[in-house]
Amino acid sequence: MAATPDLPGIPSPPPPGESALRAGTFDGTCVVVTGGGTGLGKAIALEFARLGADVVVASRKEEHLDAGRRAIEELGARALAVACDIREADSVAALFDQASEAFGMPGVLVNNAAANFPVPAEDMSPNAWRTVVDITLTGTFLCAREFGRRHLAAGTPGSIVNVGASYAWTGGPGFAHSAAAKAGVVNLTQTLAVEWGPYGIQVNCLVPGLMPHEDMTGDIRSNLDRTHDKDACQPALRVGERQELGWAATFLASPYGRFISGHTLVVDGANWHRRSLTNPTVVPVREQMGLGPFEG
């Protein structure tokens, strides 16, 4: 059954550049955003920059670093781009050293960097599993650990925002590696919030819905291409705008969100809660991906 075309859905957000927080909320604050050069990470980085933060963009790819730094500087904010492999503790430590040297010790960390691609579990190689889990879960832990250790030693407060995914709760057919890693990120968020709360460090998680951007993985892009009107597939009757995720991240890390910790905030217009009145026909993942029978 098609969505009724005259239903209003959830209203569109204010345009990019607007903010619910006062100007200068993050003046003098160094914010590190992993994977902050493109896509949703870049959108988050830009919102912090608009509010006065000095932003450090971390990525393994030089072109992403350049794109993120340029976009932040175009807003008149200070930016630093640092090449970093978050799977390596030494590389993470070097990232924080460079950030501290440029702008002072980071007060906010956004763990956005992740890896993902669709593959049936039976076809997944051990290396594919390790790559996604190492970047998505281990990388998040190593960055959080480095941030936490520095603040614990200095006796200063800080804020961590991890980026999760809704299939951390529901499971993700075709994404066993990523779904398992993101479930770990949600649990890590809760654990660190309790461990580090007494020291003034809040830890939260942010889960984005469908928010089209230039750095979407091939599976998401092809899904959008196959569906002529993705808005009708969302309870909100629209997809999300990138700045909506940025606004949520800046609020969680702001002075106005200090008593929120250990929480996972889903920004998806209720899409992950959607259930049909009657169960749709089950289509195996291999068939959805256009793959033939598994042959071993």
Looking at this structure, what is the CATH superfamily?
NAD(P)-binding Rossmann-like Domain
- Main sheet: strands, sense, barrel: 7 strands, parallel
The gyration radius over C-alpha positions equals: 19 Å
Oligomeric state, counting identical vs distinct chains: single chain
Number of helices in the DSSP assignment: 9
Rounded average pLDDT: 93
Features:
40% helix; Rossmann fold; 7 strands; alpha/beta; 296 residues
Describe the structure.
The chain has a single domain (30-271), classed as 3-Layer(aba) Sandwich (Rossmann fold). 40% of the residues lie in helices and 13% in strands. It has 296 residues and is an alpha/beta fold. Strand 4, helix 4 and strand 5 (158-163) form a beta-alpha-beta unit. The mean pLDDT is 93. 42% of the residues are buried.
In short:
The chain is α/β, with parallel strands linked by helices and 296 residues long. It has helices at residues 39-50, 62-73, 89-103, 126-154, 167-170, 176-196, 218-226, 242-253, 285-288, and strands spanning 30-34, 54-59, 79-83, 108-111, 158-163, 201-208, 264-267.
Task: Please describe the topology of this protein.
Blueprint: E1 30-34, H1 39-50, E2 54-59, H2 62-73, E3 79-83, H3 89-103, E4 108-111, H4 126-154, E5 158-163, H5 167-170, H6 176-196, E6 201-208, H7 218-226, H8 242-253, E7 264-267, H9 285-288
Parallel strand pairs: 1-2, 1-4, 2-3, 4-5, 5-6, 6-7
